[in-house]
Structure formats: structure tokens, C-alpha cells
Design goal:
about 210 residues, two-stranded antiparallel ribbon, globular
Amino acid sequence: MVIGSAAAFAADSSTGLSSVRLRRQVLDRLDEYARAVAGEKTARVARVDSLSLWEPKPKESKTEAKKGDEGSPEQKLAGKKLAEVDEFERRFMPMGCILRAELDPEHWLTSGLGDKVPVMFYSDYAYMSKQPVETAARFAESRDLRLSGLLWPEARSRWASTAYLTKEARGKGQLILFAEDPVFRGYFRGSERLLLIALLLGPGRGASRPTPW
């Protein structure tokens, strides 16, 4: 289990410990992560069209999109601009803000906690996650992110929908990542329970261990 700055170490692409990534390291793939977040939300409210299920229409053929030259001057310039904007937005990091974390109610890490909890956040790290990483808790969208404290608009856009609590398999074990300390001064029982569930249920629910006979 990694929390706060330890989570940043694990998510750094140079360590290879986690598939979660620091936002500043995947600026050229933000659209990919945005699609992953949209897919998670759509899956929770899936609707089945019975007509299309029993009487499917033939799929329309799609022409392949033309791929641009990788590493072109335009792409390099855009990447540099994104890095500059991200560096600027990091200066507006939440400093002790109370933010809303939206939970996946079907994940074992959030058992009995409903669909959201308040969390204390004081960090300039933003974490990006997608499958096969399981994101049990994710910060809310910009309009619903702040619960209390000073949160600059730049912080809203940078941390909105980023990962707060993730779980991923590692060998026969697992790696559970908290973006920030869930029990800071014991303020919130909801985030504290997330940690307790991870500690008490994690060895049996998330890890794959051989069964002796």
C-alpha cells in the first residue's frame, strides 16, 4: 500500500511499480484517460436496448483515419505548451481543501460507504488511471469537486476526475494507492474506513494466494 508521496514514487513512470501515472507524465494522452473515465461512468448506468439486442443492424463501414507524422514539429510544440500549462497549474495546488471523492459502489474497497466521501487533500500530484487499474475512488468533476476551503479554478480543472484510490494486481499480491493520507488528523471517518477496508480485507479480497491442501 502506498499513500501520498509514496504514491507519487510508485506512479512515477521511471519506477515501474504501478500502471497509474502522474498527470504531468501523460499530458500527450489526456484524451485517452478522459475516454477511460467516461467509460467507467457509462458502465455504472448501462442501459440495454432489447430491440438492437435481438434485431441488430449491420455495422457501417468506417474508413481509417489518416495518421499524422509522429514527432512532427507541431506535435512537439503542442507537447511543450501542455507541459508549460501543467507546470503553471501545479502552483494552484489544493492546500488543505476538502474535496469530493466519488466511489465505485460495486468495488470491495468501498464496501458500505455509498457513492461519495469527503477527503482532505494537500498535494501537487494528480494521478491518472485506466484499465486494467481498478479505480475505486475518483475525484468529482470540476463543478462538484470543492466541498470546503480555497480551490482555485486552475486546481479544479487539473484535479477533476483524477484518481484518489486505485487497486492493481502485482504478481500474487496487489498495489493499493491513495492519492493522499486518508486519515489526516482523523478528520473524516469515510476516508478512514477506506484505509481500514484496504488493510483488513485486502489480503483476502485483492491478493491471489495459493490454497494449501
